[in-house]
Amino acid sequence: MFTLASWKHLRIPFSFYLMPVFFFALALTPNHNPERLLLVFIGLHLFLYPASNGYNSYFDKDEKSIGGLRNPPKVSKGLYFLSILFTALAIGFGATINWQFASMLLVYSLVSMAYSHPSIRLKKYAYGSWIIAGFFQGCFTFCMAYAGLSDFGWDIFTKSHVLIPGLLTSVMLWGSYPLTQIYQHEEDANRGDQTLSLKLGIHGTFTFSAIWFLIAGAAFGWYFLDRNQNQAFFVFLGALAPVMLYFLVWFMFARKAPEKYVNYDWAMWMNRVSGIALNAFFIWYFLENTQIMQVFY
Prior knowledge:
Blueprint: H1 4-10, H2 19-28, H3 34-60, H4 77-95, H5 99-116, H6 126-150, H7 160-176, H8 185-191, H9 196-226, H10 230-256, H11 258-261, H12 264-296
Helix pairs in contact: 1-3, 1-4, 2-6, 2-7, 2-12, 3-4, 3-5, 3-6, 4-5, 5-6, 6-7, 6-9, 7-9, 9-10, 10-12
């Protein structure tokens, strides 16, 4: 269970790319508490996401590059048990806050397992997996983080001031999700997984993502301007600029020579550019909102 190969499949550093959702929730949470912040962060990024990665890797048994691993080692039964252990630890961390937050972590884990387990394997359904993955990694995680950070329960899913920004994160992820599959068409097809990117094709994947990125940009713009946060709107546009520039350059090259440019390296650099830009923005947004809250409270 504790072999180097199993630990590699957890892909803990890959959690960096999901941190913007956490920082966005942190920026809007009114009840800041250092202990809860640490528990939620560790529970999500050091245990829950790695557990999902490991569980997914165990059932996929990829032989070619996957997100965060250029050359994935062969999986063993130990990886399965390690992913279950990390799931239990994530839920345990959540339970120290409240049982409702722990139950949210459990629900996320079960959906993640259904994504890759052969008896259900949501991954093989193109649009179903796209909707579910985007919703749970975005809106559900945002609401879950908000609940954990503030010591709230399931009722936060009925609060518009939580649900709306949560849905914004899903819109962003619905745009980027197909790009994470774009270099895995051959292996997905061999497994019988009809992923959205495989269904759309390379050109269709870029076009589909471009449309959803435009929707996401407009939705976030409306959100910030509706809150009279003009500065946040312009800073957000600045953060998106390098992401969109990289995306357009990649799209242009991929149209000319897909066999050369639609690969692991280009996809991972898309993750890096967007991860750095969005994490930087939402950390700034958190610090900015904290100052505003201090004025009013």
